[in-house]
Amino acid sequence: MKRTFDVFFSFSVIVLVSPLFIIIAIAIWFNDRGPVFFIQERVGLNGRCFRIFKFRTMVANAEALKVSLLGLNEQTGPVFKIKNDPRVTRVGRFLRKTSLDELPQFYNVIRGEMSIVGPRPPISSEVEMYKLWQKRRLTMKPGITCTWQVSGRNNIPFNQWMKLDLDYIDNWSFTWDAVLIIKTIKAIFIGSGN
Length: 194
What we know:
This protein has 194 residues and is mainly alpha-helical. The protein has one domain. Helix content is 43%, strand content 10%. The protein is built from 8 helices and 4 strands, in the order H-H-E-E-H-H-H-E-H-E-H-H. Strands 1-2 form a two-stranded antiparallel ribbon. A two-stranded parallel ribbon has the order 3-4. It is globular.
């Protein structure tokens, strides 16, 4: 039932907001003439790797520049997060604030690699540093949104973030998914992302 909902909801979103996809793509391209999409390998259900799609919010060589910024990391644990990341473009700031950069992931959902709601998919270098209890978050299909996304995101310490994901896995229900989707839509409209 969750998979049926995921496919129906994702297909509906893609059809309804397809004009917005075009507008965002044009804005990104005009900003710096670089690629429209950012494609990165992520770790999904049971440790299987897949390629995630996002609208590009950073300069084209952002991954290469990451090494020089490691000392500015503001997040605990194996993840890398900077509130005012200098690699983020002007258009990218808006896309991140509204979470519109995540829209292409509905394609990942249709492909069966992701769900609408579930723990956010990590990169493999982060998973390599997970403690055993943290790896349990890979026992559910990753999602576009989750409890962490609507509870403070980068302001939440890494271990608390992991506990939120495990709590979601242990207490999953359609009602809880619906609540998180509504909270995510609200966050998009008030621009609370970062």
